């Protein structure tokens, strides 16, 4: 009896026996849930070695051999089941490749401490501030000419500008000079940003860096020109015509330039939509088909963004900005799609 119990214990399918009978099971293969349940049922045949002998005494003649044959049959059925293969996953994705590129793709890769990065960042910020400061000083010299240039969209409609408080015109001149100086200093700021991030870019990323920067600059200045020639005159004409015959148009010089400058710069920034799309497509995060598939949400988003960016509340200005935004988005999506990303 004890010998028969030892035979049963030796035939109990364990993990080591299972792998020894099926050498094809490697690290890529794992037992399915049905196998785990079947092995658990097999292990439940004998609860413990202490009560095994008492249980075997009650087994009739030939019962031990029948139990052994049943266990062997069940084990053979388990071995004949197809192994569940888990696909290989190296843990990499488009986001992972973008954040952690291979070292051979970084031609100028060099080790720098955190303090070295901070020192370089401080120097480049200092150069950018100097460039903007020089632009502001130069624009302040011609501040009156700039103010007359920005008053042109409504100067022919009988609008007069007033200085409602002492020094209002002076501070308005500083504000106009600040915006124009920032506009002139943008090329220097872009150069310093590129020089700071260039060592960390891969070879493929450097190929589209030049077109991206050039396209971004062109779109920004085109947005400002579009705002000055289309959006600003349309919005101001709407306000003048609405008030005609009821009130005389006497506008605060400070509030007028706040309206015009905010509208121009927000339009220039909103024209960067295709640049963002190209960056997302080049990095593999979003495809052109995915961008085109959400066009309904883009229509609603363009209207909302136009309502937020435009300082006025009239629907005409918002629609005039929402239309180009939608066109720029669709153009950027098709560009990403045609480029194969």
Radius of gyration: 37 Å
**How much helicity do the residues have?**
over 70%
Structural class: mainly alpha
| Outline type | extended
Q: Tell me the series of helices and strands, N- to C-terminal.
A: HHEHHHEHHHHEHHHEHHHHH
Number of spatially distinct domains: 2
| Main pleated-sheet profile | 2 strands, antiparallel
Strand order of the largest sheet: 1-2
Taking the alpha carbons of the first and last residues, their distance comes to 73 Å
Task: Walk me through what this model shows.
The chain has helices spanning 2-11, 15-21, 33-43, 52-57, 63-80, 94-99, 114-141, 143-150, 152-155, 168-197, 203-207, 209-243, 253-270, 273-283, 288-293, 295-309, 315-338; strands at 29-30, 84-85, 160-162, 250-252. With 341 residues, it is mostly helical. Helices cover 71% and strands 3% of the residues. The model is unreliable at 1-53 and 85-89 (pLDDT under 50). The two termini are 73 Å apart. It has two domains: 2-85; 96-271, no CATH class. The strands form two sheets. The chain has a two-stranded antiparallel ribbon with strand order 1-2. One of its GO terms (molecular function) is proton motive force dependent protein transmembrane transporter activity. It comes from Zostera marina. Keywords: Membrane, Transmembrane, Transmembrane helix. Pfam families: TatC. The chain crosses the membrane at residues 176-198, 218-239, 259-280, 292-310, 316-336.
């Amino acid at each position: 009896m004890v010998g028969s119990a030892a035979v049963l214990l030796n035939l109990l399918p364990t993990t080591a026996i299972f792998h020894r009978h099926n050498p094809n099971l490697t690290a890529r293969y794992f037992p399915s849930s049905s196998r785990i349940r079947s092995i658990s049922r097999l292990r439940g045949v004998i609860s413990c070695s202490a009560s095994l002998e008492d249980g075997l005494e009650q087994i009739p003649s030939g019962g031990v051999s029948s139990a052994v044959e049943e266990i062997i049959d069940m084990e053979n059925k388990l071995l004949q089941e197809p192994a569940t293969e888990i696909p290989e996953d190296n843990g990499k994705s488009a986001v992972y490749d973008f954040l952690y590129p291979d070292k051979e793709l970084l031609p100028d890769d060099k080790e720098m401490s955190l303090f070295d990065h901070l020192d370089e960042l401080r120097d480049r910020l200092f150069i950018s501030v100097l460039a903007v400061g020089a632009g502001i000083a130069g624009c302040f010299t011609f501040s009156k000419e700039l103010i007359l240039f920005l008053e042109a969209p409504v100067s022919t409609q009988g609008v007069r500008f007033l200085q409602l408080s002492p020094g209002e015109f002076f501070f308005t001149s500083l504000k106009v000079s600040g915006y124009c100086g920032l506009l002139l200093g943008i090329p220097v700021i872009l150069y310093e940003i590129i020089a700071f991030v260039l060592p960390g870019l891969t070879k493929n990323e450097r190929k589209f860096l030049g077109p991206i920067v050039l396209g971004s600059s062109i779109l920004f200045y085109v947005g400002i020109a579009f705002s000055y020639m289309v959006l600003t005159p349309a919005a101001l004409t709407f306000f003048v015509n609405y008030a005609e015959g009821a009130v005389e148009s006497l506008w605060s010089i400070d509030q007028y330039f706040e309206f015009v400058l905010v509208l121009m710069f927000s339009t220039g920034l909103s024209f960067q939509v295709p640049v963002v799309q190209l960056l997302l497509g080049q990095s593999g995060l979003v495809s052109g088909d995915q961008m085109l598939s959400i066009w309904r949400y883009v229509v609603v988003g363009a209207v909302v963004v136009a309502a937020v960016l435009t300082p006025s509340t009239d629907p005409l200005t918002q629609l005039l900005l929402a239309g180009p935004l939608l066109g720029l988005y669709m153009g950027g999506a098709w560009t990403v799609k045609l480029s194969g990303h």
